[in-house]
Amino acid sequence: MVRAMDIALFQPDQPGNTGTLLRLGACMSTSVHIIEPCGFPFSRRALKRYAMDYADLVDLHHHRDFEAFKDFYRSSKQRLILLTTKTKTCYTDFLFQSSDILMVGQESSGVPDYIHDLAHGSVTIPMHTDARSINVAVAHAMVLGEALRQTAQFPK
Questions:
Q1: Which domains does the chain have, with CATH numbers?
Q2: Would you say residue 24 has pLDDT above 50?
């Protein structure tokens, strides 16, 4: 079975961004993976608060840690594509596949080096040289939009 594109949040530390990305997943028919530990309480009750009325629409996969997520994505045979400031590959130059998992790191610190090493690819969004990074929810929306455009997977 070929899976559709997914998005993943590695140990998110901002509940507002998490809620925004859960809504993005619901609106774009994209599965969302939350990889613990989070920097805030994450539960079914909290999910309703963060995702508001979109909680029942999102296909949420909750992983207790990165090892559990790694087991999932390896068994699903999906590519892990990292959104990062630590690459020169522009997201519009990258060739996405319909079953990719697009991952962002913690808002405060990104992802550890071992995840960079495991990723099948990494992309960045070109920005002003004096800027440090784009909000993870905004970045995910930009890159997901391009990936869905390339793979003709926008919801109908």
A1: 6-151 (3.40.1280.10)
A2: yes
Per-residue model confidence as pLDDT tens digits over 83-130: 999 999 999 999 999 999 999 999 888 999 999 999 999 999 999 999
Contact 55, 29 (CB under 8 A): no
**Residue 44: what are its φ and ψ, rounded to 5°?**
-60, -40
Residue 6: left (phi > 0), alpha (psi -120 to 50), or beta? beta
Token pair for residue 32?
């969302």
Strand 121-123's sheet: what is its strand order? 60-63, 31-35, 6-10, 101-104, 80-83, 121-123
CA dihedral angle for residue 27, residue 29, residue 33, residue 39, rounded to 10 degrees:
0
Residue with token string 């068994």: 75
Element (H, E) at 136: helix 136-151
Show the tokens assigned to 12.
């998110």
pTM exceeds 0.85 for this model:
yes
